[in-house]
Amino acid sequence: MSINLQALSAQLLVGLINGSFYALLSLGLAVIFGMLNIINFAHGALYMMGAFCAYFLLNGLGLNYWFALIIAPVAVGIFGMILERTMLKWLTGLDHLYGLLLTFGLALIIQGVFQNYFGSSGLPYAIPDQLRGGMNLGFMFLPIYRGWVVIFSLVVCLLTWYLIERTRLGAYLRAATENPTLVRAFGINVPRMITLTYGLGVGLAALAGVLSAPINQVRPLMGTDLIIVVFAVVVIGGMGSIMGSIITGFTLGIVEGLTKYFYPEASNTVVFVLMVLVLLVKPAGLTGRAT
Amino acid sequence: MVDTNVADPKASAAKSQAGAILEVRNLEAWYGESHILHGINFDVRPGEVVTLLGRNGAGKTSTLKSIMGMIGKRTGSIRYENNELIRMSSDKIARLGVAFCPEERGIFSSLDVRENLMLPPTIRSGGLSLDQIFDLFPNLKERLSSQGTKLSGGEQQMLAIGRILRTGARFLMLDEPTEGLAPVIIQQIGHTISRLKSEGFTILLVEQNFRFASTVADRFYIVEHGKIIDGFANSELQANMDKLHTYLGV
What we know:
The complex is a heterodimer.
Chain A: H1 5-36, H2 43-60, H3 65-86, H4 96-118, E1 134-136, E2 141-143, H5 144-166, H6 168-178, H7 180-185, H8 190-216, H9 222-237, H10 242-262, H11 270-281
Antiparallel strand pairs in A: 1-2
Chain B: H1 9-15, E1 22-31, E2 34-44, E3 49-53, H2 60-67, E4 73-80, E5 83-84, H3 90-95, E6 98-101, H4 113-118, H5 130-136, H6 138-142, H7 153-165, E7 171-175, H8 183-198, E8 202-206, H9 210-216, E9 219-224, E10 227-233, H10 241-248
Parallel strand pairs in B: 3-8, 3-9, 6-7, 7-8
Antiparallel strand pairs in B: 1-2, 1-4, 4-5, 9-10
């Protein structure tokens, strides 16, 4: 069998793009799960809000993509923090099932509201001028915007990893994940840290939403399809590991891309097949700690 | 004025003294539905080492945790340097200069030794410098980049004590610091406590190891069934030996 390099690299690029979104979203889920012990089913809806936020900023206030890249994560992050303060914080100490039900319900409500006003079809969001066009790499044509998404996501993921694993603030976060009561008794305001952590995770989802807007259009249900795969990614990578979710996110994107090239029929299921295999062999996920 | 409902009159003599840095009055506490403290009364004066003695489950640890604000429901009064702690959250209590070293040591496995040591934020000046801490516990210096929970039990205890000395807290609560440790390390911890006392730290100790406590403490309180049932100074120890054996069942 001969390999069509151009088609293969095109699929690999698509895989890397998807991998970027998987990584940003599963990273946020991992951070939130570590600190709040909540599996955040609202993540897809918040990702969608990030994209809509970019759309409103452009069409309502005339603020372009670059502003959206900063404002949307902050705005949606604040919305997330309000959710945490008013609702999620009451889940402390309850079974995971309650967190699942509450965040799933929130996702349905948020998506329902957006569908009510914007229907189900996609709204266009143009690629910013600076990132238009493409580059001929010799073996393939690389649209600049797609290259930007991959590199920018990678940088954001690594910065988040650095923040959590290498800084003092991150040490508070890791310690509070293990023993919040004791960390609080050292004089650290743990409830505030929990709120900020949720804001951070949600902000990452919103950032992914902004990045995705020019590629996938802005749709109320854009998060629903994506989040199912992201949960599979999280299960494969193992909940709670930062580097694990980044690596698994990008890797599974690439695996999906390769499958699209070699055996397209399986491209939509390969992630789930992998999930089943991983669950059979390592129930805690590839990098997860057994609990 | 101050309620002193203590069974033994001698205990009240030992406790109602002026100038206390910590005054605990009628402290009651609950874990969920179970009522664990039933009216604890005692004082700690500045610069003292006070030890709570008692059998397992008597309420010693719960008393420390109540003072630190780590138990949800508590009533009565806990005054520290004229601040009422009974309704304060534990992060605010820590900010007043109260520090707690838990029985299980609470070393974080996802942090290395340096991060564990640097974790509690500095709350005021006057804490020990890292060099002074390494001077007390030389072992820690060589293991700074090890994972916190890879240390031996003794080293973990040194780390747990060392990290609260950095913060500038002047009132230390140590919960069974000698539990499960080798005699030579117990001795080292004893020296540390004596040295901290000479530097003006106030220490509230919970101990099962009565022999150890008698080498460092100025005064003792006996906790039983969630109450303080007796108290005496170290100098009265010999006279109270028989009673003590009965209380502790040794």
